[in-house]
Amino acid sequence: MHRNASKLGPADDPTIWVGVNFWSRTGGPLMWRSYDGAVIDEELRTLRDHGITLTRSFLYWPDFMPEPDRLDPVMLERFDDFLERHSALGMTTVPTFIVGHMSGQNWDPVWREGRDVFADEWFVERQAWYVSECAARWKDHAAVAGWLLSNEIPIYADWRSRGIGTVDHRHVTAWADTLIGALRAAGAHQPVSVGDGAWGVEMTGADNGFRGRDLEPLIDFHGPHVYRMENDPVRQNLGAAFTCELLDLGGKPVIMEEFGVTSDYTSEEHAAHYYRQILHNTLLAGATGWIPWNNTDYDALEDQEPYSHHPFEMHFGLTDDRGRPKEQLREVKRFTEVLRSTDFARLTRPDSGVTLVVSSFLEKMYPFTQPDDAAAVLSVTRQAYVAAREADLPVGVAREAAGLPADSALYLLPSAKQLTAPGWRTLREEAARGATVYASYFVGTHQTQRGSWWPKLDETFGVTKQLRYGLTDTIEDDQLRMTFLEDFGTLTAGEELVFPVGGTEHSRTYLPVVPDGAEVVATDGHGRPALLRHRVGSGQMILCTYPLEHMAAVTAAVNPEPTWRLYAALAAEAGVTPVVTVADGRVVTGEMAHPDGHSFVWFVSQHPGDLTVRPEVREGKLTGLDGGELDEVSLTPYGVVVARREP
């Protein structure tokens, strides 16, 4: 299947954004009141000297539009100056218009008076006028690289609900269409997006009115804001990458519009590890721009809202409050050096024969289903993505809701309670065509219609299920010990994989079966079938009777757990073992192709200590970026090494 890595700009001259979200340390959101051009020059120079050539800037709405039919001329002139200072340094910026939410607080223009941001026609018209006036003023300025309608407007529109269940998606789409229409009518030609954080139903399973599929035709790029809290380091390191994969909703570029860490939550060393992981893993997941949050710290503003009540928001900076670089900024500079040395603007992600299936129950509001169903789809699919990357698989993420690709050799359906009947039909047809289709049993996390909604389970997998209506078959052991009875891909007869067991009173459940046409590939610790193969047509259906991905997803500090070895074996069975792999789940690899015929291979450590691995290269040879032959790869804690592969 095709894997997105679209870039801004024309194909023969793409634009790569490496920037930062910017508020000057002189005022934070109130910087335009205390504007100090000399300080801003200093701040911009420090960023530029570390490889950052773009800022995302913010027009603090109450200051720029104090009345419904008037813009403040002083604020406009100060932004004029801000643009000139960017141009003088060879930098650009992305202005953000509707800035009513920032860093843990909402600010209204005094004239909003409780009006609905999206549904009040007069209020929408005033926003469109504001956008039009600003765009007309700055559309021809060389320092303007793009535009954003808002900053995290789902929180601003209704912070209590974040729009979930309260905002009509038709109003949101019409609002975006109106504002982008006003921008274009004013003559602005630069790329534009919404600035909503990409928190819509396709990404979270909760409908806040921002539907990516509806907005996709209107925008030029997707801009996720990712600040994950996790209980597993590898899920944390790959979480933003999974978000990028999910955002392939129509082939538009994915720009990491916000990510970062507050120094109040982490050491500087670990902050640098986090930046390194986010930057490189999202690159391998198709991101083609990066704008971390944010440029500086704000210790001098501790008495100013929002920092007085959200003090951790003062310390997300790439520099401290005196403008001195933190290790995070040095990490960004090292990343830009990798982009240059690999000629990243010309790199592409190779197509993949491995498809990770995302059930449509994540995003489709089917009647009489539970919110927990969507949450479970997101959880298990994220964990499956982690396992696939640990297996070095160049996995493509495909949404059932958009139709499954018909060109994959391996389909992974992890811990799937629900898939539509047509979805199952497609997978059976793909297996008959010659594909390997893997599915693991899962009954869901709650009691309502508890069970796997799999039509023709017995016929599909060549088994006779031994289920009892309304009851579960509880997994009593603390570990699943899966022993292989025959060679299977990269696994040999007699090998044992040991998986963690977890889940709720409902989900901690296995599937008892008797083979009826299928062969038992592996058994559990009680001799029961744990993995079965059913040959159909030219392919095979592989059934796992345990919810491996769900059990790992609900377990803290679990990765790498053995699902990656099972996925590597499945890839071997399907004939899609990657060209370059390492036999260590603590190191993730990924390859990017160059049009001149060579490629670049990333080795990304998921380990807190030093590691040395010997890559297995099935075609060509590896060299370092310095040209020397590379037989071993030595990685520092959570380190990254990039090599060149000659065909």
Please characterize this protein's 3D structure.
The longest helix is centred in the middle third of the chain and has 20 residues, at 371-390. The strands form 8 sheets. Strands 13-12-14-15-22-21-20-17-18 form a 9-stranded mixed beta sheet. The chain is globular and about 80 Å long. It contains 16 helices and 30 strands. The mean pLDDT is 97. By secondary structure, the protein is α/β, with parallel strands linked by helices.
List the helices and strands and how they pair.
Layout: E1 17-21, H1 37-49, E2 54-60, H2 61-64, H3 73-88, E3 92-99, E4 101-102, E5 105-106, H4 121-138, E6 147-150, H5 153-157, H6 169-185, E7 192-193, H7 201-204, H8 212-215, E8 225-226, H9 233-246, E9 254-256, E10 258-259, H10 268-284, E11 287-290, H11 327-341, E12 354-358, H12 371-390, E13 396-399, E14 410-413, H13 421-433, E15 436-440, H14 457-461, E16 463-465, E17 479-484, E18 496-500, E19 513-515, E20 519-523, E21 529-536, E22 539-544, H15 548-553, H16 563-574, E23 580-581, E24 587-593, E25 599-605, E26 611-613, E27 616-617, E28 621-624, E29 633-635, E30 640-646
Parallel strand pairs: 1-2, 1-11, 2-3, 3-6, 6-7, 8-10, 9-11, 12-13, 12-14, 14-15, 15-22
Antiparallel strand pairs: 4-5, 16-19, 17-18, 17-20, 20-21, 21-22, 23-27, 24-25, 25-30, 26-29, 28-30
Defining key terms:
single chain; 647 residues; alpha/beta; 9-stranded mixed beta sheet; 7-stranded parallel beta sheet; globular
